[in-house]
Amino acid sequence: QLQLVESGGGLVQPGGSLRLSCTASGFTLNYYAIGWFRQAPGKEREGVSCIRGHGGNINYADSVKGRFTISRDNAKNTVYLQMNGLKPEDTAVYYCALDFYSQCLQDILPVDYAYWGQGTQVTVSS
């Protein structure tokens, strides 16, 4: 059964760091693009970062460039999102999602991603 599971969320102070994980089961994650998205209460879901299959191109939203880093560990069938310099406005539920066409376009749009995890909460607060 195809499944994506996010983990690593939590409560962190402004300026702190978290590393989110997106682990796949039922398929080989490296074949596909994986995107990270977030959704804050009352706001639309927005793309944060993506990584193409087989170590291809990577894109970031302007709001996280220089602070967030996406990577993948093929041996663990996992994609990570390292988040540094966290700000209160980063507070949201974070989701990973799969693009079967392995695109990872510059505009990271939810409509391009067909399969989603359940999300993990990230709260940045003092």
Please give a structural write-up:
With 126 residues, the protein is mainly β. Strands 2, 4, 5, 6, 9, 10 and 11 form a 7-stranded mixed beta sheet that branches. A 4-stranded antiparallel beta sheet has the order 1-3-8-7, with no helix packed on it. Strand 7 and strand 8 form a beta hairpin. It is globular.
SSE topology string: EEEEEEEEEEE
**How many distinct helices?**
0
Uncertain segments: none
Nearest-integer average pLDDT: 95
Structural class: mainly beta
Q: Tell me the strand percentage band.
A: over 45%
Kindly state the percentage of residues in helix.
Answer: under 10%
Q: Report the C-alpha radius of gyration, rounded.
A: 13 Å
Largest sheet: 7 strands, mixed
How many strands?
A: 11
Give the distance, in angstroms, between the N- and C-terminal Cα atoms. Answer: 40 Å
The general outline is globular
Topology:
Blueprint: E1 3-7, E2 10-12, E3 18-25, E4 33-39, E5 46-51, E6 58-60, E7 68-73, E8 78-83, E9 92-99, E10 115-116, E11 120-124
Parallel strand pairs: 2-11
Antiparallel strand pairs: 1-3, 3-8, 4-5, 4-9, 5-6, 7-8, 9-10, 9-11
Essential attributes:
126 residues, 7-stranded mixed sheet, 4-stranded antiparallel sheet
Short description:
With 126 residues, the protein is an all-beta fold.
